[in-house]
């Protein structure tokens, strides 16, 4: 493939090797999310952030994750918690509207630390006093996580920790998580499009990453069926804990420089 073709995929910011790597990694991280509930999106964000500026990473990552989660949502649709989806979406719209007023003014590093602390609290701390099945809790979960998503890119651990307290079985968790993330990334695409991000320049690469992600989702769901519910919950909790600690460390190190 000639240089012009590579520039069509990644502009002037990606080499051929980096482009291929991102396409492969998109499939692998989708498999991780499908098999263990969450975590792939944050892994992909960290890798993309090492190759591209954050001003490009967050919107492009959001489009790729929109495709990945929509695929997973379609594969597991019949297991979704409909009430959670509706109230989470309502809160998500409110959160996106609030974020649109301050999208360029919040420090990314601070938000990383806040997200990590909140996830760790939900995983290991005291269960929130609001009943996890209440309408208010579900709306607030959508509002808070969508607002945060606009600034940190990968809110999967945050959304996952909010759903974790519902004690879903593994298929219901995967379906509900994917539906909520699909809504969230759709809102993100709308917001960044409204503020002027040129998505069309990145669409060829995004489409290839989504196709790779669809294959990864299929493989991950095959693996999911082979994992017991108890083992799934333990692995999911461990993955989220490690990723949250990594996110907090990134934020702390950025402040210390």
UniProtKB/TrEMBL annotation:
Main location class: membrane
UniProt keyword annotations, A-Z: Cell membrane, Membrane, Transmembrane, Transmembrane helix, Transport
Organism of origin: Pseudoalteromonas lipolytica
Transmembrane segments: 12-36, 42-64, 85-104, 110-127, 139-159
Recorded family membership: Belongs to the 4-toluene sulfonate uptake permease (TSUP) (TC 2.A.102) family.
Descriptive protein name: Probable membrane transporter protein
Highest taxon listed in the record's lineage: Bacteria
Pfam families: TauE (PF01925)
InterPro entries: TM_pro_TauE-like (IPR002781), TSUP (IPR052017)
Compartment(s) where it occurs, according to its Swiss-Prot or TrEMBL record: Cell membrane
């Amino acid at each position: 493939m000639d240089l012009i073709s590579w520039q069509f995929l990644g502009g002037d910011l990606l080499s051929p090797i980096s482009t291929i790597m991102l396409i492969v990694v998109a499939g692998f991280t989708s498999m991780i999310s499908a098999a263990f509930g969450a975590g792939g999106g944050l892994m992909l964000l960290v890798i993309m952030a090492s190759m591209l500026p954050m001003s490009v990473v967050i919107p492009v990552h959001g489009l790729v994750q929109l495709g990945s989660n929509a695929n997973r949502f379609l594969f597991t649709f019949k297991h979704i918690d409909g009430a959670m989806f509706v109230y989470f979406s309502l809160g998500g719209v409110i959160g996106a509207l609030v974020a649109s007023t301050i999208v360029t003014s919040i420090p990314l590093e601070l938000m990383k630390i806040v997200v990590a602390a909140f996830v760790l609290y939900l995983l290991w701390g005291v269960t929130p006093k609001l009943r996890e099945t209440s309408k208010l809790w579900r709306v607030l979960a959508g509002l808070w996580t969508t607002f945060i998503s606009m600034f940190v890119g990968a809110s999967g651990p945050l959304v996952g920790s909010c759903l974790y307290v519902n004690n879903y079985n593994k298929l219901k968790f995967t379906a509900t998580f994917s539906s909520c993330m699909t809504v969230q990334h759709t809102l993100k695409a709308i917001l960044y499009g409204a503020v002027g991000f040129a998505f069309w320049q990145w669409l060829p690469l995004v489409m290839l990453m989504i196709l790779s992600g669809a294959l990864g989702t299929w493989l991950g769901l095959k693996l999911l069926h082979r994992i017991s519910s108890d083992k799934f919950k333990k692995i999911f909790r461990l993955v989220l804990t490690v990723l949250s600690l990594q996110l907090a460390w990134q934020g702390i190190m950025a402040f210390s420089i």
